[in-house]
Design brief:
Blueprint: H1 3-27, H2 33-60, H3 69-75, H4 87-114, H5 118-142
Helix pairs in contact: 1-2, 1-3, 1-4, 2-5, 4-5
Amino acid sequence: MDYHLAIKTAFASEYAFALKAQNFHWNVEGPSFPQLHLLFERIYDEVYGVVDQFAEEIRAMGVYTPASLSKFNMLTMVEDENSILTDRDMIEELLVDSDKMAHLFKITFAMAEANGDHGLSNFLADRQDQHKKHSWMLRATLK
């Protein structure tokens, strides 16, 4: 995959991941509602908190940042969820996506390093670490 396309894909996927976590935050139900409502909020807050920095990292590469729902939809590796899932299914789906994001950031980190973009690679390494933490929390919640 082309380096710039890979970074844009990671960006669009990160945005889609945050939106899915927010969807689950809004729509979770069941006996674990309070805990899951808060967990999903913490996840999407953390991810949305770096979206602007991520966009600026892309602009610093000299390319344009995707910034429309249609472009996000074309690029994302995180599938949209239009159904209202059970609380357990929400956790499982977000876990799969978080693991996917950690892997995507691992790949884009290696690409950034190969291109000598060490500031970007540091950012991508931090994103991988955050998704590993999100995955750990989601996985622990499933036990």
